[in-house]
Amino acid sequence: MSTVTSDRQQSLADVVVVDYGLGNLRSVTRGLERAGAGVEITDDPEAFADADGVVLPGVGAFREGIENADPLREDLLEVADAGTPLFGICLGMQMLLTTSEEGANEGESAVQGLDLIPGTNVRFAEGQKVPHMGWNELSVERDHPLVEGVDGRYAYFVHSYYAVPDDEDATVATTDYEREFPAIVANEAGNVFGTQFHPEKSGETGLEILRNFVEICRDE
Amino acid sequence: MTLTKRVIPCIDVDLDEDGNPAVYTGVHFEDLEYTGDPVEMAKAYNESGADEFVFLDITASAEGRETMLDVVRDVADEVFIPLTVGGGIRTTEDIKETLRAGADKVSITTGALERPELITEGARAFGSQCIVISVDARRRFDGEGEHYVEVDGESCWFECTKKGGREGTGIDVLEWAREAEDRGAGELFVNSIDKDGTKDGYDIPLTKAVCETVDTPVIASSGCGGPEDLYEVFTEAGADAGLAASIFHFDEHSIRECKEYLDERGVPVRL
What we know:
heterodimer, A: alpha/beta, 3-stranded mixed beta sheet, globular, B: alpha/beta, TIM Barrel, 10 helices, EC 4.3.2.10 (chain A), Imidazole glycerol phosphate synthase subunit HisH (chain A), amino-acid biosynthesis (chain A), cytoplasm (chain A)
């Protein structure tokens, strides 16, 4: 059990970044702080319940991500069920879906995601340069408080798989990389959402999205 | 709407006489000149429209490495664009430490040449997207290569070098690029020993040959003297990103100026 807490004195909302042992938590933490949040990096599920919002970060492979986060699976489902904002970033967004081709292509059993946004993560087509790595344009498809002010702006993507939600309405924004795919997804209730790109790496546009997230948490 | 071409400033960080991290800029991987404080430079580039930031630890020592991880942390705190860190990475533990310090990607040169499994292990554990394989290529005009291209009317192959070009390996860059991709490298940095610090343009034949060999994104490096060189490497060689150091460090050209030049000529960039 480990917990690192930042100064909460001036924060607009108290946000938990889930530490499941993978990836770069520092950037997302700093981005959230810059956006006005007080941030606690933790693997303590009790902290989830008290938070105004929970961030599921992620860098890396689907199987490893899910396996590492598995002890927290029920707790994350409870966060979503309670209506608390749950924000998945990159692999964290993919983990919100039901499954992924990524875990399945090694001859092992399929890896089950959190299934909060039903759907599958699939690999870009043969012959396309993967990973899709770089700055690409966001096209907002429908209203969601996360995307205020970011239509037509650029975000930073790094991924080889992309989400295909079962329900088309789960797509909040798309981007185009030879094919159109979801850049931002959200569940029907609106409290579970994720970005395929890294807002903490998307310069001013990314900080705008993080500020929107902090606003959503504050309204909780 | 499409993926933009990236313009990336790079800093080489060493320890100064007092053991403090400092940015140096060199010519032909030698003759290093003090350029500034890494964190201050990172902050400035974060504001300047840079698409990514590359930080290379050139200390190549164990003590240096610890200090560098601290600097990486400080830089990561100031940079809200992707950060690639390279230099001295030889094990998956090194990769993990560097990512944990705040890097988004690690750049590996010698560690991968000496033990190619490192690419496979790193890609499996952390995802291909954070494994950047960097090659320091040198033109060779002899019969020992595998793949030849024409350069200035002569038949040439490109050799992977180690230690900033001081040591040859006999490995053909194009063979190595293909192997790195097969093992799961997510991106390739293509440096040119012949062009480094010259400011007379990227090594177009080299970059083009690598781009035609792999599907993985290619970052051209070495030789950038201004916006026209970026234009050339994007349109003629097919690079996905162009890296430069001295022209940005010494304020000869701003990143915005380069991007406006590219935009006016129809190259997609983030403005």
